[in-house]
Design a protein that fits this description.
The protein has 399 residues and is an alpha/beta fold. Helices cover 35% and strands 20% of the residues. The chain folds into three domains: 173 residues, Rossmann fold (3-Layer(aba) Sandwich), CATH 3.40.50; 71 residues; 80 residues, Ubiquitin-like (UB roll) (Roll), CATH 3.10.20.30. The protein has eleven helices and 14 strands. Strands 1, 2, 3, 4, 5, 6 and 7 form a seven-stranded mixed β-sheet that branches. Strands 11-10-14-12-13 form a five-stranded mixed β-sheet. Strands 8-9 form a two-stranded antiparallel sheet. The radius of gyration is 23 Å and the shape is flat.
Length: 399
């Protein structure tokens, strides 16, 4: 299952973000280090289903379809707050980062209101500037990977002296095996850091660091959730942050608002869809005020709470994934048990149909691959065909 990690300094709203997306009730509190053990849960990414287009009633297995929208489950991991020098063991240290190793991408939750300092302590609004937070968190991640790799290299230095640079990818793959990386990602980072022609044993610290930086940016990409956007001091900071991190995706979010709205929806108090609220039953003064606050400070200003958008942007904007619907019977759109449009998978946008067959359906199907069929166009596709968003695919193999 696809995995997203939530990272940020203490008290920035990570667990609230997590609770809103998973509807769990992990502990939230207005002080640092509330979360110690990681929280894990299931959130959903929306994809426009193909059931309406093909005019069929589907029986999804790996996802849920509501009114033509597929809800594809992804795993969400919320970890403890990260402080400067965590890599040296400050705060709760960096042990918990091990949970982030498996993530496809990271949502970096920043308290953009500036009402908590870099350690998550509550401060007077306007006395702390959150602008450097994304950099600080990225640097901690970088130091963590860097130290891991440096240790591995040092342990092995004698042995790897005699290897040449052609073997760089293999050695690095072994050293970094815990980070669930693809060979291609390592090879690309080598090129970007201009180290593909220098053997690992001869890398300077600076070069190891540069390599790790490129590797992180491409294999654990992050977007920034400018959280607590509802507070009065947030907008100005958010604007400056957008200026500073031009190359990154920044989404204004209010995790607390999203959580409140989802709960109100669950209690059938409101209808809540695409950033619009409709009150369904008698509510008391306090509830009315809370809804008005969200309406005025979040929905009217930013169009939505940004929380679901941030999750989906990870897959469709940051990672550029596509959603693919495989079927076994191209006429009935079923699997072998007769389920109509049973599955939808989120896959990297540079994936060819043969790799998709082996990695997502069955290794055998990739091994004995003959061709695929684009069910929509009723066209044969060769193994090199690169999958597109909302493709419906049948794989034909010789076995
Ligand atoms: N105003 C406002 N407050 C928020 C928002 N999101 C979270 N909070 C509050 O921020 C405080 C910290 O929230 P948590 O979710 O516990 O933060 P955390 O980042 O998980 O904190 P640690 O686990 O201690 O690192 C709580 O009081 C939340 O209610 C938001 O969007 N707006
Ligand atoms: Mg927390």
């Amino acid at each position: 299952m696809p995995i997203i990690g939530i990272l940020g300094k203490p008290n920035s709203g990570k667990t609230t973000f997590f609770n809103a997306l998973t509807m769990q009730s992990a502990k939230v509190a207005p002080y640092p280090f509330t979360t110690i053990e990681p929280n894990k849960g299931i959130a959903y990414v929306r994809v426009e289903c193909v059931c309406k287009e093909f005019n069929v009633k589907d029986n999804p297995r790996n996802s849920v379809c509501v009114d033509g929208i597929r809800y594809v489950p992804v795993e969400l991991i919320d970890v403890a707050g990260l402080v400067q020098d965590a890599w040296k063991g400050r705060g709760l240290g960096n042990k918990f980062l091990d949970e982030i190793r498996k993530a496809d991408a990271i949502i970096l939750v920043v308290d953009v209101s500036g009402t908590t300092d870099s350690e998550g302590r509550i401060v007077k609004p306007g006395t702390y500037d959150p602008i450097n937070e994304p950099e600080m968190i990225f640097n901690e991640l970088l130091m963590w990977v860097f130290n891991n790799l440096k240790e591995e290299i040092e342990k092995d230095l004698r042995k790897i002296q005699r290897l040449d640079y052609n073997e760089n990818v293999q050695i690095l793959e072994r050293y970094l095996s815990g980070f669930s990386l693809k060979r291609k990602q390592i090879a690309n980072a080598l090129i970007k850091s201009r180290l593909e022609k220098k053997k690992v044993a001869e890398w300077s610290e600076e070069e190891i660091r540069n390599f790790c930086k490129e590797l992180l940016l491409s294999s654990k990409p992050f977007l920034i959730a400018a959280n607590k956007i509802d507070l009065p001091t947030s907008n100005e900071n958010y604007k400056r942050m957008k200026e500073k991190y031009k190359d990154f995706i920044i989404i204004p979010t209010s995790a607390e608002s999203e959580l409140a709205l989802r709960k109100a929806k669950e209690n059938k108090m409101i209808e809540y869809n695409d950033g619009k609220i409709r009150i369904l039953k008698e509510i008391d003064e306090k509830q009315r005020k809370a809804l008005e606050y969200i309406q005025k400070n979040v929905l009217e200003k930013y169009g939505s709470t940004g929380v679901q958008e941030a999750l989906e942007a990870c897959y469709f904007k940051l990672l550029n994934y596509v959603a693919v619907f495989p079927v076994e019977d191209q006429n009935k759109l079923t699997d072998h048990e007769g389920n109509v449009l049973p599955d939808v998978f989120l896959v990297p946008s540079d994936m060819n149909v043969r790799d998709f067959a082996s990695e997502y359906i069955h290794t055998e199907l990739g091994k004995y691959f003959l061709y695929a069929i684009d069910v929509r166009k009723k066209q044969k596709l060769g193994e090199d065909y690169i999958l597109k968003h909302r493709d419906v695919i049948k794989i034909v193999s010789s076995k």
